[in-house]
Amino acid sequence: MSSPASTPGGRKRGRNANPPTPNSEDPTSPPSQRRRGQDSSAGDLMPMPTSPATDLLSPAAPQDTSLFSSPRPSGPNEVDISSPLVYGTPSSRVEGTPRSGVRGTPARQRPDLGSVRKAPQVDLHSDQPSADNAVASEPSAGQNLVIWGTDVNVGTCKEKFQRFLQRFIDPTSTEDENAGLDLNEPLYMQKLEEISVVGDPVLNVNCRHVQSFDAELYRQLICYPQEVIPTFDMAVNELFFERFPDSVLEYQIQVRPYNALKTKNMRNLNPEDIDQLITLGGMVIRTSQLIPEMQEAFFQCQVCAFSARVEVDRGRIAEPAVCRNCNNTHSMTLVHNRSVFSDKQMIKIQESPEDMPAGQTPHTTILYAHNDLVDKVQPGDRVNITGIYRAVPMRVHPRQSNVRSVYKTHIDAIHFRKTDEKRLHGLDQDGEQKLFTEDRVQTLKELAAKPDVYERLASALAPSIYEHEDIKKGILLQLFGGTRKDFSQTGRGNFRAEVNILLCGDPGTSKSQLLQYVYNLVPRGQYTSGKGSSAVGLTAYVMKDPETRQLVLQTGALVLSDNGICCIDEFDKMSDNTRSVLHEVMEQQTLSIAKAGIICQLNARTAVLAAANPVESQWNPKKTTIENIQLPHTLLSRFDLIFLMLDPQDEAYDRRLAHHLVSLYYQSEEQMEEEFLDMAVLKDYIAYARTYISPRLSEEASQALIEAYVDMRKIGSGRGMVSAYPRQLESLIRLAEAHAKVRFSEKVETIDVEEAKRLHREALKQSATDPRTGFVDISILTTGMSATARKRKEEVAQALKKLIQAKGKTPAMKYQQLLEDLRGQSETAITKELFDEALRALADEDYLTVTGKTVRLLA
Amino acid sequence: MLSTQDWIHAPLGVVEEKFAAAQKGSSPGWEAEVVEFFKEQLKEKSAQSLVPSLNDVPLHYLKPNSLVKFRCFIQDMFDPEFYMGVYETVDGPTDAKMLHCGKYRDVAECGVDFNSKNTVTAERQTFYCVPIPGENLWVKDGYAGSSQARVVASTSYVPSRQKRSYEEDEDMDTQPQKQAHAGLQGPTDLQSNADCKRQETEAPPTQAASASHLDLNFPLPGERGPACLVKVYEDWESFKLNDALEVFGILSVSPALSALAEERDASSSFLDPTEGMETAEEQRVHSPPASLVPRLHVLHAKPLQHNNPLLPHATSDDNGAFLSSTVAEMASVRAELLAYFTHVLLGDGLAAEFLLLHLLSSVYSRRDALPLGKFTLNLSGLPAASYSERLYQILQQLVPCSWYLAMSLQNMNQTRLRPRKDYTANRLVSGSLQLAQNTSLFLDETRLEPGQLDATGVCNVTALGNVITWQKVDYDFNYHQMEFPCNINVLIASEGRSLLPSDCRVHLEAQVTPAHLEEYLSSIQAFPQTSSQLNRFRIYLSVARLLDYSISDQMTKYVEEDFVEMRKDDPQGVSADDLHRMLVVARLLCLSLGQNHLSRDGWLRAKHMEMLRRSRMEQHQTVNGNEP
After folding, report:
1. Are A324 and A384 in contact (CB under 8 A)?
2. Helix and strand numbers, DSSP H then E, in chain B
3. Residue of A nearest to B365 (CA)
4. In A103-206, which ranges are continuous DSSP H helix?
5. Among A119, A365, A654, whose Cβ lies nearest the Cβ of B564?
6. Three-state SS for A58?
7. pLDDT tens-digit map of A30-85
8. Closest-approach residue (CA) in chain B for A111
9. What are the chain B neighbours of A647 within 8 Å (beta carbons)?
10. What residues does A856 pair with on adjacent strands?
11. Which helix (H) or strand (E) is B393 found in, with range?
């Protein structure tokens, strides 16, 4: 009985060891196929005219006891390294070739890497001699053979796969790895060409392509991966060397299927999935050190130096007791140096947090990576892995027949795909793509078609928080975000697509609750409190890994929320130092780090939702926003929308609020759900829009935006102040785009601009109204001081100057005296601050200096 | 047919029988039948009490493969495992093949034919369960007392535990009083006292010694009791981490299970690559010796709605009658309890009222991230440090599960509050905040001293804040945090205003002069309470929490009007938060009176209480103006 040999590791091992010469390979394959047919009928066959084994050490030699390869008389130099079929043959072959036994070749079983299947599932048996599968080029009996235990016919399967490779075209492909390929040409042939140029003999095959091309083949691939994948390997190698007879590869091409639709979630794995091809998403939590695993033991007779190779079978080596050459017993010794080892690594992955039901702990699964897949992933990586699911019975004691009635399960990895790999470099559409069922998409589209979808979604947002409709709308737009635009070719780099929002207002107006809600809603949200986070906690820090003792970069909240939303509570309590890192993030959307020898720039395309409390615990309506929250205006101007959450204190509002709260306490869950959109729908809606919709400005919309901007500039110009800057225009564009996304529209239209304008105006009205004049004044946010305040400051300074000049030639004055004089002279109240500012202004003019309590005139 | 003894002593026999019948083709749904059979048998409360409990019978008195019950708490969930549901053995010499059932077992018979086509692989889930953390002594004794299981010890030794339980049947009444006296000592004394008792019956010295090198991963320090690997065969998705369960299952203590770990080092993992993948720690944690951590194959499991032995289980039929009878006398019990609390809280009736409401609170629903129904109380102005401890001892007598955390600097910096995932051993290392629902957490802030909190300390304070505000604990999964909702009643005892947030703060106004305080304090303990009275209190507190509650439309209107009025009078002083609090107070107040709907009277009383509390706060603020 043979163990199934076709795990990827098994295949690769062979390949690593014996680089075949392509030239010799090509001619061999057809005959070997023929032979296979004969194998089952005729008992004997001459060895193939293959290139004689040049390499004694070639470890793969005994492996090609395969259906397609020529059986050879065994002997020390009977190594066929040139057969294209050296690896990747269904292990079934072993038993199917009776001659191997006849000729006395040592048992040629492929060691199965870590997977031991107990059933002798591999054998050949004749099918009914029906001739429908006439696709075969050779009308031999072999076409009717299927691998035992499966319904896989090697010939047909190969044929089908070759046809797939030659013909499959995916014009709609958006995968990044297909970039640069001609989408109207057969995709995989182009990839083969790439292989011939690059020389990396790995062919990744998207299972979804196989499925769309040939559902039957796909089914076989999923159900019998260990038989089908080797067949694919054979097919692709034949095809490849036919096409590119001159190319030299290190070893033969391996097919690595990925994206099997079988399973997406670890939790759904069940016994039916055993030995099937599955794709799982998860996070790597632990990787073992490299384990050298013996594949083949090399024995040498101490008496006559005769050598023998024994393959490891399920972790055991059958030590030859007798030397076949000199018939001495117990003369064979193991020579480690000449034994063959393969690399192996144990990797543990854990369910991604998003996939988990609430209240349960994440599941973990063990993976084995072999050969070049070793060290491909690091702990913490999010990966999608494709592999074969295995179950092995556990022995209570290695030498005891008593077994625990429990299986150990693991996955033999065939393909890794890091889902977060791209996050540090660029756009990552593919890894993030959430699968939506047809029905779901339909529901979402229906919802989008409703005229009041915007209002609906806004009210579905944080239903437990009452009113604040505009704030919710703003946050909704933030959740959708604008369209990403890349101007890097013109030197401007990426435009920020994320909308930043600041909420400020009285304590206890459920700002934190809103933040918590948003944090719970978005898949990649981070929640930090300004009080508790330091600059490094927000950005990234360098630390020494306790295990490897290497410096590693640990990312902080802002980087972690890349493509998500970073909620920062108690924004005002943040130290200036910490806040300063936000400047870069909030406009350039990157984070530059230069510490401990690591200099890098990370992407932090995160939207910031911050909440700040007024300095005086209660919002002072007599002061400007800046004065109330005491944040630097440079930072404030980076927020697209700044909302005030104030207690409106009006009866009707109170009544509605009371009703809302009371109902919160007595309504049952179902009632609430009827009233509001389900959070899950909202989540999907946002995810769908973010992935699939990228609206562009229409002509009218651009016009409307221009007008809006010009209007905004005009408002202020009448009073000599600026009420809009280009930043505000950008904000408007983002908001309009986000609103178009809400409607699932690919085009930004005038209504989007209208809403963006309205919302922007609302926010400005709240945050940028000059309490002294009642006018909206953007300079409050952009320069930290309203134009009137600035004007007033100048006036006071002038008045002071006049006062001093009127006093004549007194070189020094008392501070207090001067203040009182000025107060007496002025008809408006002059505060001490105002006076100080005026003094400072004059000092800046080099007119006077202030030292302690005296004011001296200069010059 | 089977006698009662048979299904308890040899439940596997029942399983085998059904399985054999199924093989003959008579009943295909044998698995469901087995479960149904045991469910049927366990319907009767008397039958349930016949089953010995792992909680109070030491493991070595229990027969392997017999039916036992276990009152436990899911501390960790392991990965699901695949096992041989049905397998075939080949008898060596005769070559006779035989089918076996692998369900509810750990070890298969000899000579398994792995290649048999009849093998059926099935899946089961393993939970790591520990006794409910913070379970108070009266609860343990209450359960042990009601058990009638006659355990036939495998040795001639007669378990002393059993003897005690007979006694307890008669003098149940005296028992709690003994504890009340025991409560005179500090909580630590009480604990050790309990430990001694437990140890004597439960842990022979050798076992205690071996336990020391194996961390059984109890959430709270100083806990004792058996930990158990509970294997669940169906519906495991319905169980959640931190659920409290009562499990009926087949005890498996096969030494072969523990042999696994010991043999490991000897046998070279090189030979068997499949076994080289687990670290030694992982081995130790996932296959601990069965003598220490038995396996339990679940036949029937039910979540515990409450953990009060004095209350019938929600499933039993006489529940309705019991409820109505208790509800009828709730008002009178409430008055008694209030008087008691007033006495305990140095004659402060208002604080007593709030304390009572606090003990009834429970998160009954969540809206988005907002938990509804929680009522964290901050009792400030406590006189002396020792007072808070005494207060805790009194509460301990009343609530089923509780935990006392002295917020000393050392405690805050060193205790692990948040559970953390240990990836080397692949388990969730428990933290003190991993508590079952409705556990009372007593935070003693009077122990706080000046000093610096380190990183752990800050983390811990944040974690406590999160529990209080959002009723959730962020478990540390190294690469990410995972949020687990919880339902913990937090009571903060402090001198001034607490550094932690709270829903409601009451400043204690002692009616006792400081001079007489010492004297008074010692008299609190001696306050005469009969055990029947104590039991009434215990039942009262548990039942009030289980009642339904609703608000009629009419009341909604009324409350709305009232709120608008209040805002008119004092727009600055009344906010949405106040309405939130008043709604909770009103709810708890009504429940405490046994009413299951909001009444006008209840609302007015709640308002009145709030008013009193606020006026006291203002008064207090003007007295020491430094308070914010």
Report:
1. no
2. 22, 18
3. A669
4. 154-167, 187-198
5. A654
6. coil
7. 333 333 333 333 333 333 433 333 333 333 333 333 333 333 333 333 333 333 33
8. B273
9. 571, 575
10. A812, A849
11. helix B385-396
Surface-to-core class of residue B628, CB atoms within 10 Å of its CB (0-12 exposed, 13-18 middle, 19+ buried): exposed
Comparing CB atoms, the residue among A114, A395, A655 nearest residue B560 is A655
Token pair for B523: 């008299």
Dist. CA A727–CA A722, nearest whole Å: 13
Neighbours of A329 (CB within 10 A): 9
* Angstrom distance (rounded) from CA A712 to CA B239: 58
Cα(A340)–Cα(A57) distance, rounded to whole angstroms?
9
Per-residue pLDDT tens over the stretch A337-346: 888 888 888 8
> In one letter, which amino acid is A648?
P
Shortest Cα distance from A651 to chain B (angstroms)? Answer: 6
Burial group, residue A352, by CB count within 10 angstroms (0-12, 13-18, 19+) = buried
List the one residue out of A473, A752, A512 whose CA is nearest residue A612: A512
Residues whose CB is less than 8 angstroms from the CB of residue B419 and which lie 6 or more positions away in sequence, other chains included = B219, B428, B429, B430, B431, B433, B434, B473, B475, B476
DSSP B242: T
* Residue A645 · residue A506 · CB < 8 Å: yes
Report d(CA A779, CA A727) in Å as an integer.
12
One DSSP character per residue, B97-141 reads: EEEEE-TT-SBPPSSB-TT-TT-EEEEEEEEEEEEPTTB-HHHHH
- Distance (Å) of CA A811 to CA A804, A824, A847, A856, A857: 10, 21, 11, 6, 5
Neighbours of B615 (CB within 10 A): 10
User: 3-state DSSP call for residue B317?
Assistant: coil
* Total residue length of chain B: 628
The total of other beta-carbon atoms located within 10 Å of residue B3's CB is 8
Angle at A599 between CA A596 and CA A603, to 5 degrees: 125
Ranges under pLDDT 70 in chain B: 1-5, 26-28, 45, 92, 115, 148-214, 255-281, 313-321, 368-369, 384-385, 514-515, 521, 523-530, 571-572, 620-628
CA distance B528 to chain A (A): 39
Structure confidence by residue, pLDDT tens digits, A194-247: 888 877 778 888 888 888 888 888 888 888 887 788 888 888 888 888 888 777
DSSP annotation of B313 reads: P
Nearest-Cα residue of chain A relative to residue B76? A361
- What residues of chain A lie within 8 A of the CB of B129, using their CB? none
The DSSP result for A471-489, as a single string, is HHHHHHHHHH----EEEGG
Note whether B95 contacts A: Cβ–Cβ < 8 A.
no
Of B237, B271, B559, the CB nearest to A662: B559
Mutate to test the interface with B, among A267, A404, A552 (most CBs of B within 10 A): A404
Which regions of A178-238 does DSSP assign to beta strands (E)?
Answer: 202-206
Q: Is A557 part of the contact surface with chain B (CB cutoff 8 Å)? A: no
Amino acid residing at A734:
R
Residues 6+ positions from B600 with CB-CB distance below 8 Å: B555, B558
Contacts of B30-38 spanning 24+ positions with Cβ under 8 A? B31/B103, B34/B299, B35/B234, B35/B299, B35/B300, B37/B7, B38/B7, B38/B11, B38/B14, B38/B67, B38/B248, B38/B299, B38/B300
**Residue contact A396–B477, C-beta within 8 A:** no
Q: Which two tokens stand for residue A233?
A: 């390997």
The pTM is what?
0.70
Paired tokens of A431: 């890894």
Residues 433-462 of B with CB under 8 A from A: 458, 462
CA distance to partner chain B, nearest, from residue A613 (Å): 16
Are B273 and A364 within 8 A, CB to CB? no
